[in-house]
Amino acid sequence: MAEITKIGLAGFGAWGQMHARAIAAIDDARLTAVFCHGESSERAAAEALPDVPRFRSYDAMLAAGGFDAVTVAVPNDRHAGFAMAALEAGAHVILEKPLGVTLAECDQVLAASAAAGRHVAVNHELRVSHQWGKVREIIAAGEIGQVRHQHFSLFRKPFRLGSGGWRHDRQRVGSWILEELVHFVDLVLWYGAENGQPVSLQAFASSAGGLADTVSVMLRWADGSTALVTQCLAGFEHHTLLEIAGDAGAVRTWWAGVSDRTATPGFALAVCRRGAEAAEPVAIPRSGEIFELEENIRRALDGFRTGQLVMPLAAARAAVAICLTIERSIETDAAVVLHTI
């Protein structure tokens, strides 16, 4: 029988509760503590997890111990601090994205991880998706040749407020670019890995200040390849579209649901492979963040045992660096040259 990994959960809001359900579905994982930041989340935890010790103080939960890893599902501005405290307590960390809301925070988490000899797995769950991960497999196998252009589009209803309205508070969320666009920034960097790092970007938004409901970003690589990433938070339901053209083929995939957390979305993936005259569909067993969250936690726990994580921390930092540069481009209404990210 596999060794049981004991997990402490920091945060029991709507997404923290999704973490709890995902952990319950993993045979070799057990939830042994939960931090609840308020009365409503504590009541929810008492009802859903009556046998799991509950704490209103995160420090008290860490001091009590009894876990091998902590999964952090709190507002964005608290990610880095919670992660570092868990590392200092000797635990591995599963951390919701973004890694931090500043590069200084990101670097502090990287340093704390190295100092503690413990791993941090950032929840960029699309990397383990049957759908979005398959796109990377197709590119890595050379089936469409060198990536020349990517178009990634998100069209969705406005963000939920979050507990206490944190998702609509610039100081707590960081920005709406860091809240969701960071996922797609990470994917275009991953898909374009063979092209190196992008060398410049320019972004446009419906407003400055980090909480714009429409954002468009053009990234450019030294070899002339490009990526156009757009986010519209003034739409309805939840719709994503990705189109990638290589020098020998192309990929197109989409996902749609009544919300980002639906269990019954529609989705499809098609590829025109090197030498083919027409595209062919690629079977996807399932797709959606509620499934990918469970798989990402499962792989994180495996990575804690083997030292092989799905996503290097440096890649999570790079996605934050690009997002912060997008904000700077919007604020200055100018293209920005990218140096090392």
What does the secondary structure layout of this molecule look like, with pairings?
Blueprint: E1 5-10, H1 14-24, E2 29-35, H2 39-48, E3 54-55, H3 58-64, E4 69-72, H4 79-88, E5 92-96, H5 103-116, E6 120-123, H6 132-140, E7 147-156, H7 170-173, H8 176-191, E8 198-205, E9 214-221, E10 226-232, E11 238-246, E12 250-257, E13 266-272, E14 280-281, H9 289-306, H10 313-332, E15 336-337
Parallel strand pairs: 1-2, 1-4, 2-3, 4-5, 5-6, 7-10
Antiparallel strand pairs: 7-11, 8-9, 8-15, 9-10, 11-12, 12-13, 13-14
In short:
The protein is of the alpha/beta class. Helices cover 35% and strands 26% of the residues.
Can you walk through the features of this model?
With 341 residues, the protein is of the alpha/beta class. It folds into 2 domains: 5-124, NAD(P)-binding Rossmann-like Domain (Rossmann fold, 3-Layer(aba) Sandwich), CATH 3.40.50.720; 126-293 and 320-337, Dihydrodipicolinate Reductase, domain 2. The chain has 10 helices and 15 strands. A hairpin with a 7-residue loop joins strand 13 (266-272) and strand 14 (280-281). Helix 5 packs antiparallel against helix 10 (313-332) and helix 8 (176-191) crosses helix 10.
CATH architecture of the largest domain: 2-Layer Sandwich
What name does CATH use for the topology of the largest domain? Answer: Dihydrodipicolinate Reductase, domain 2
Rg (CA only): 20 Å
- How many angstroms separate the termini? 42 Å
Order of helices and strands: EHEHEHEHEHEHEHHEEEEEEEHHE
Number of helices: 10
Biggest β-sheet description: 9 strands, mixed
CATH top level of the largest domain is Alpha Beta
> What structural class do the secondary elements suggest?
alpha/beta
CATH superfamily of the largest domain: Dihydrodipicolinate Reductase, domain 2
Mean pLDDT: 96
Morphology call: globular
Task: Please provide the count of β strands.
Answer: 15
Residue share in β-strands: 25-35%
- Range of helix content: 25-40%
| Largest beta sheet: strand ordering | 14-13-12-11-7-10-9-8-15
Low-confidence stretches: none
Q: Please tell me the total number of domains.
A: 2
